[in-house]
Amino acid sequence: MRRIAMSEIPGETCLAEIASRTALEKALADYIPPDREAFSKAFLSGLSNDELLFLGEFLGSCILITSAINMDTWDAICHGADAFRRSRQRMTDRQREDADHKLILLGEFAACCGFVIKFR
Length: 120
Hints:
- This protein is 63% helix and 0% strand.
- It is mainly α.
- The chain has one domain (27-112).
């Protein structure tokens, strides 16, 4: 696979335009403890590209939060998931269905990694 130089990426490029499925799976697999690797990789391989992109973008935003403030990544993930859940009140029925699916997906990925997302 050819490596993309940063100068080749336009300023408004999104993750979906440059990330391959393999790269997304590998990046997400970095969060998986070694004793859960086989099960978790099977979970990731069963996800759609859109689901992998959502997890990648969500985790990426949490990593950025932790770099700006003193917070553990999984604490940031729980905080972000809770904020996402609360935002459902302002959504249409279709958007709520999509948000519910994404929250389930996030919870399943966290469980694969040995974590539980607790909502307040």
